[in-house]
């Protein structure tokens, strides 16, 4: 009957996958541009608070990180918040050594520009954070940054 | 002669997708989205043993913010919600009606603006060891926002330029853009200097 229908037993052609590599490469470049290499293996639960008045840390090579939060393996390490420096758990007393060691890795002229970024879980109590800050003061690591996520400001829309 | 007639074999690109996927997965695993955004602060230098205590500050010049272990705020002796902190802090810093119980003013020479009344405000922040980090950041954020909003208003009024934009311009690579912006930012900051002092935390009930 129909004019357009030719013989019915003709196979539908396969969907061309020739553009698949292009699509995947596009995704790849997107991820390469937007992400950064992982600094450490996180051993703590890290859910950062949100803030609006934030600044970007420009030079990542001058930033050291101090992580504080509840351990992920609560069965092994308990639920009290712990400090993580590089890949290991540490105590408050290790902060001074950590800062000194990080300083030694860099030329002396840049020591004043080093920023310590505190990556702290939002449910942590301030006690441990204050202890860390006091230790940082003792070793003259005075530039700090409280790492936060960006909160969308409702007033701007 | 026969060779020329033979068609050039095309390289099979069928596995290109696989290779790209492999790379993609590698990047997904080894990288994070984690951002380097944060609230920048400067800690006070450690106290020396024989250091003289700083001169006392008049009560009217100090804006006291206390945070307790239940994440409640006591601002200037009154219980306050975090959402009202920004407005309260703004009123304290600028003291628009020159009220008696809000900070005093001192006349200062500010470059590019001439004589300005600069308030002697200080914000004092004290938290408990049991205060949550989240509340602490929210308080810091609201106080910073109060300063930034006042600076923004002043900058628009005096220079007709946004303070935020000026701050961005100071990071510019060309000195012709960065230098005048730096001067303006400095002038605005002199009128509204950020003075947040953090007292040693109190150990009360957890």
Strand order of the largest sheet of chain A: 6-5-4-7-8
Tell me about the largest β-sheet of chain A: 5 strands, mixed
Biggest interface pair, counts: A-B, 54 and 48 residues
Overall geometry of chain A = elongated
**Helix-strand string of chain A:** HEEEEHEEHEHEE
| Individual helix count of chain B | 6
Mean pLDDT of chain A: 86
First-last Cα distance of chain B: 93 Å
Helix content of chain A: 25-40%
Can you describe what's shown?
The complex is a heterodimer of chains A (157) and B (206). Chain A is of the alpha/beta class. Chain A has helices at 20-34, 74-77, 94-104, 126-138; strands at 36-37, 50-51, 55-56, 63-69, 82-85, 88-90, 115-120, 143-147, 149-150. In chain A, the strands form 2 sheets. A 5-stranded mixed beta sheet of chain A has the order 6-5-4-7-8, with helices on one face. In chain A, strands 2-9 form a two-stranded parallel sheet. In chain A, helix 4 links the parallel strand 7 (115-120) and strand 8 (143-147). The termini of chain A are far apart. The mean pLDDT of chain A is 86. Helices cover 39% and strands 20% of the residues of chain B. Chain B is α/β, with parallel strands linked by helices and 206 residues long. The chains are: A alpha/beta (157), B alpha/beta (206). The interface between A and B is large, with 54 and 48 residues. Strand 8 (143-147) of chain A pairs antiparallel with strand 2 (37-42) of chain B.
């Amino acid at each position: 009957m129909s004019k357009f229908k030719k013989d019915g037993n003709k196979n539908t052609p396969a969907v061309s996958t020739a553009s698949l590599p292009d699509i995947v490469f596009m995704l790849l470049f997107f991820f390469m541009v937007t992400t950064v290499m992982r600094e450490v293996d996180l051993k703590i639960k890290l859910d950062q608070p949100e803030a609006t008045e934030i600044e970007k840390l420009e030079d990542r090579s001058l930033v050291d990180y101090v992580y504080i939060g509840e351990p992920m393996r609560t069965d092994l390490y308990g639920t009290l918040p712990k400090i993580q420096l590089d890949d290991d758990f540490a105590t408050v007393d290790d902060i001074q050594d950590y800062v000194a060691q990080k300083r030694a890795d860099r030329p002396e002229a840049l020591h004043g520009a080093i920023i310590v970024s505190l990556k702290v879980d939002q449910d942590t109590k301030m006690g441990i954070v204050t202890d860390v800050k006091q230790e940082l003061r003792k070793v003259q690591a005075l530039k700090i940054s409280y790492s936060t996520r960006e909160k969308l400001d409702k007033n701007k829309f | 002669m026969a060779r020329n007639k033979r068609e050039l074999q095309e390289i099979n690109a069928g596995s290109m997708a696989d290779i790209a996927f492999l790379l993609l997965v590698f990047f997904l695993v080894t990288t994070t989205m984690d951002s380097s955004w944060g609230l920048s602060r400067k800690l006070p230098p450690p106290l020396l043993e024989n250091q003289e205590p700083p001169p006392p500050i008049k009560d009217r010049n100090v804006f006291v913010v206390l945070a307790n272990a239940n994440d409640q705020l006591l601002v200037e002796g009154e219980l306050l919600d975090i959402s009202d902190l920004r407005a309260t802090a703004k009123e304290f810093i600028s003291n628009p009606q020159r009220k008696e119980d809000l900070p005093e003013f001192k006349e200062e020479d500010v470059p590019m603006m001439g004589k300005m009344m600069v308030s002697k405000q200080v914000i004092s922040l004290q938290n408990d060891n049991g205060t949550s980090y989240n509340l602490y950041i929210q308080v810091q954020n609201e106080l910073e926002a109060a300063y930034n909003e006042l600076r923004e208003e002043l900058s628009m009024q005096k220079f007709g330029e946004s303070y935020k934009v000026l701050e961005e311009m100071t990071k510019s690579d060309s000195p012709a853009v960065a230098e005048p912006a730096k001067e303006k930012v400095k002038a605005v900051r002199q009128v509204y200097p950020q003075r947040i002092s953090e007292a040693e935390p109190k150990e009360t009930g957890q």
